[in-house]
Specification:
There is one protein chain. Strands 7-6-5-8-10-9 form a six-stranded mixed β-sheet. Strands 13-12-11-20-21 form a five-stranded mixed β-sheet, with helices on both faces. The chain has a four-stranded mixed β-sheet with strand order 1-3-4-2. It folds into four domains: about 5-35, no CATH class; about 55-140, Roll (Ubiquitin-like (UB roll)), CATH 3.10.20; about 145-285, 2-Layer Sandwich (Nucleotidyltransferase, domain 5); about 295-524, Nucleotidyltransferase, domain 5 (2-Layer Sandwich), CATH 3.30.420. The chain is globular and about 100 Å long. β6 (about 160-165) and β7 (about 170-180) form a beta hairpin. With about 525 residues, it is α/β, with parallel strands linked by helices. About 25% of the residues lie in helices and about 20% in strands. It has helices spanning about 5-10, 30-35, 55-60, 80-90, 100-110, 190-195, 200-225, 240-245, 270-275, 295-305, 380-385, 395-405, 455-475, 500-505; strands at about 60-65, 95-100, 115-125, 135-140, 150-155, 160-165, 170-180, 230-235, 270, 280-285, 315, 325, 330-335, 360-365, 370-375, 390-395, 425-430, 430-440, 450, 485-490, 515-520.
Length: about 525
């Protein structure tokens, strides 16, 4: 970051280069505090199961009510054997395993519940109850018919979470937040390099686990449950994110021949990772494919069901790593390209996440070159009849703005601003040529919101990476993009992309609009 002459004159300094020698007061502007609250309710409709939820097929955790005969002088069977005997006789659950922390509470819980308990049992296939099972927890009495799990998508830029009632399949709450690892690098390579330093792998794991714990507490609070009531977590993410989440060294991912330490991690206990859920909860990481095609892509292929369709389909995860899949029910090919975090608002001077105050769409008058824009509203201000002032540009707004600038001639195809138009909004700023979207008196923070030449170049590189990815992938299998019957777009902001404008800037292939379908976050 570089301070402007005006900032320097006003006494601003870079905190990272300043030594504090005495007491000081730290003030965080309100607009910066607000940005941590991601607007997730706007995508509520995008989170729906791609299949009919059947507990008999899809539920690996189950609440099993058990009534035991208490011990007597004639029957002095130990507590654990007594519980196993009853589970086998009444529920067909044969010889379940048990972890030591759960074993320690069995005896007292049986007595607290007057020999009536509810067992939390994990079993992969409930239509064959004689298969291997694990007693995760034992609770006194008969508990409410609710069992909680969480689905987590560890993105390079954003972590998203759904809290799910495992009995009904109902999504009870959702939350999202920046991945705290971003302070150590915006892309996976930077994070791998940082994590390879002595002691830094543990730091990277702590950062992402802390982000997940914050989301768990937030979602559980909205649903009126305790994080400790969550017994199952399913985690998706690219290969690097999964490695760092588990604390597994990831350095081999960036070095020839580019192999992972593990593509299909074994289940682990939540307590081993420091998660705030039940310590014996199972954490399942979805399987990845290769170093740069991680678990989020199989999740998207499964969730979109493109692997079951005869239609040739292009699946795009428009995110930091630009992963994509082409194929149908008979064949699939995948690749990844480093698009960077620009589409998620990072690396752009006035970029931001899709939160309250973010400009999400822009229109430019072709005669006056004056912009109009739509802002994600603040419900509190809207309820008072006040407009929401803009604070920056989110991903969909950046795509919209770039297309409008190109179509109206504000910039040329090379991304150069056209000063010959004579518009006061096209000017030379502290960081080079820039276009002003909102003047300081219109914004929440009292600064002009601008789109600089550096920002333009970042967006052009990001969209070019994605376009090159699916173009080269199609060419490698002898397929023309015109033969693609469906384009499925995933990613946290994918459903807000304007298809026409995305095609205009060369982010999406030039195909009929009806072929495009937006799926939201398919990793969940």
């Amino acid at each position: 970051m570089r301070l402007s002459e005006a900032d320097l004159a006003a006494g601003y300094v870079l905190a990272c280069q300043t030594v504090v020698e005495g007491s000081l007061t730290v003030t965080i502007p309100p607009q910066e505090k607000v940005e941590r609250r991601l607007v997730t309710d706007r995508t509520a409709a995008g989170y729906a199961l791609p299949f009919a939820y059947d507990p008999e097929r899809h539920q690996s955790m189950r609440l099993v009510p058990v009534v035991l005969a208490p011990p007597t002088m004639e029957d002095q069977t130990d507590d654990w054997s007594r519980l196993r005997r009853t589970l086998a006789a009444e529920h067909g659950i044969v010889n379940p395993s048990i972890d030591l922390p759960t074993l320690r509470k069995v005896g007292q819980t049986l007595r607290d519940g007057d020999w009536t308990v509810t067992c939390v049992v994990e079993q992969d296939t409930w239509d064959r109850p004689e298969g291997p099972a694990r007693l995760v927890d034992v609770l006194p009495g008969h508990t409410a018919d609710q069992l909680w799990g969480a689905a987590v998508d560890i993105g390079t830029t954003t972590v998203s979470l759904l809290l799910v009632d495992l009995v009904s399949g109902r999504i009870a709450a959702r939350a999202a937040e920046y991945n705290a690892q971003i302070r150590r690098g915006e892309d996976v390579i930077s994070r791998i390099i940082y994590a390879s330093r002595n002691g830094c792998l543990e730091e990277m794991q702590t950062l992402v686990v802390g982000t997940i714990n914050e989301l768990l507490e937030r979602a559980a609070g909205r649903a009126g449950v305790r994080p400790a009531d969550v017994y199952k977590l399913t985690v998706a993410g690219n290969s690097t994110m999964i490695h760092l989440f588990l604390g597994v060294p990831a350095n081999s991912i960036r070095l020839d021949p580019f192999v992972t330490a593990v593509n299909q991690p074994p289940p682990v206990r939540a307590g081993e990772l420091g998660l705030v859920v039940h310590p014996q909860a199972t954490v399942d990481c979805l399987p990845g494919v290769a170093s740069y095609v991680g678990a989020d892509i199989p999740a998207g292929v499964l969730g979109s069901q493109m692997c079951s369709s005869p239609a040739v389909t292009l699946f795009l995860d428009v995110g930091t790593n630009g992963e994509m899949v082409l194929g149908d029910c008979d064949w699939l090919i995948s690749c990844a390209c480093s698009a960077g975090p620009a589409f998620e608002g990072a690396g752009v001077q006035d970029g931001m996440r899709a939160t309250m105050g973010a400009i999400e769409e822009v229109w430019i008058n072709s005669e006056t070159y004056e912009p109009t824009y739509r802002v994600i509203p603040d419900p509190k201000l809207e309820a008072q009849g006040q407009p929401t002032p803009p604070r920056g540009l989110c991903g969909s707004g950046l795509i919209s703005l770039l297309a409008e600038m190109l179509v109206t001639g504000v910039m040329d195809k090379g991304g150069n601003l056209n000063f010959d138009l004579g518009s006061p909004r096209i000017r030379h700023g502290d960081h080079g040529p820039e276009y002003v979207i909102a003047w300081a008196n219109e914004t929440a923070h009292g600064r002009d919101i601008v789109f600089t030449k550096v920002d333009i170049d970042n967006l052009i590189r990001a969209k070019a990476a994605i376009y090159a990815g699916f173009t080269v992938m199609a060419r490698s299998v002898g397929t023309d993009l015109s033969s693609v019957e469906r384009v499925l777009i995933g990613g946290s902001f994918g459903q807000y992309i304007n298809v026409e404008k995305a095609i205009q800037i060369g982010l999406l292939p030039d195909l009929p609009w009806e072929k495009f379908h937006f799926l939201g976050n398919t990793s969940l």
